[in-house]
Write a structure and sequence with these properties.
128 residues, alpha+beta, two-stranded antiparallel ribbon, globular
Length: 128
């Protein structure tokens, strides 16, 4: 009989804001682990976010990995040790990762980011 975890509880112990130097924009906006999807590959197909985990699952669901907090649809997969903590929802994930697409062409110091609005869309990826 195989054993699986039924749920995982995450406890935040070292938020990135306690470091002397902040993270780069790319380290969050282009990193599936940083946004809660876990280790894997992100792709966009027809305006929809897809995620392929690179880790073996430790749950009954083979599509969920140990480092994953949320699904691409924003469904939280873990429990948190504090009530105010949560994973990003689908809209937040898309907004965060959409900025990551722009970082492929633009420096994080580009004036584009100084005037960034919530509904800003890249002309190369207007469907996202």
């Amino acid at each position: 009989m195989e054993k699986y975890f039924e749920s995982i509880t995450w406890a935040q112990i070292d938020p990135h804001s306690t470091q002397k130097k902040g993270r780069t924009c790319q380290s969050c906006h282009q990193n599936p682990k940083a946004v809660g999807l876990g280790y894997g590959k992100i792709s966009f197909q027809k305006g929809k976010l897809f995620f392929e985990a690179l880790e073996k699952s430790v749950t009954k669901n083979p599509k969920i990995s140990l480092s994953q907090i949320v699904t691409p649809e924003g469904k939280t997969l873990v429990k948190f040790n504090r009530p105010e903590m949560r994973g990003f929802n689908e809209e937040e994930l898309l907004r965060i990762l959409r900025v990551g697409l722009c970082l492929n062409c633009h420096s994080e110091k580009d004036k584009l980011f100084k005037t960034w609005k919530r509904d800003t869309r890249c002309p190369k990826f207007p469907h996202l």
